[in-house]
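User: Hand in any protein.

Assistant:
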Amino acid sequence: MTDHDHKKRDDCPPEQRFFGRRKGKTLSPRQYSLVDRMMPEIGVVLPGGSGAPFVPSDMYSTPKTKIWLEIGFGKGEHIAWQAKANPEIGLIGCEPYLNGVVGLLQHIDEGEIDNIRVYGDDARHVIRALPDASVERVFLLHPDPWPKKKHAKRRFVNPANLDDIARILKDGGEFRVGTDHPLYREWTSIQMTARSDFLWLAEGPQDWLVRPDDWPETRYEAKALEGKATYFRFARVARS
């Protein structure tokens, strides 16, 4: 596999992309070999125009009754931790950054993890293919804050994407958002408070300033690039 071979779908204009670059430094031959060996086995294949339903539980070697989704998994530390801690859960990780995908593949390979499936592109492709009320938990950890006002449309937490998250989450399912950026903290608070289909699971400041035990610290969070991290947890309100 070469850099030229790693092509992605771009079905939205730049101003609507919530992620930045797709590739960093050149991968080593071993890293490319991981992609070539593992992605045919654990890569998510969407139905496309076939009309066939996307049944996420069918992707795993053993049946999974619960599905969790991570949007933009970085180098994969969080999703790998969750997979090892919850072997009964089927996890789907979406990441358009090739070097990040390789990072997760290394975790999966070294940890012999078999309950993660990987989509190396825009998470919205997977979200739109998922059936209604099919996911128990969605993670969005340290997304690009797109701090400039002119880039606000690129922030993942927006009404259209939240509509999609609300659709795929089961009643009582959880949407977790982590950020260390003051602007994104405020933006998320405003966007989520305006929703009637999500309940903010916080009774006081400490509920969103203290990291829960089942929320492992990532390498990015440890750097605390922008400030103190915030741990948002929202529950999907039961459908009427």
Summary: The chain has two domains: 24-46+53-131, 134-240. The CA atoms of residues 75 and 100 lie 4 Å apart.
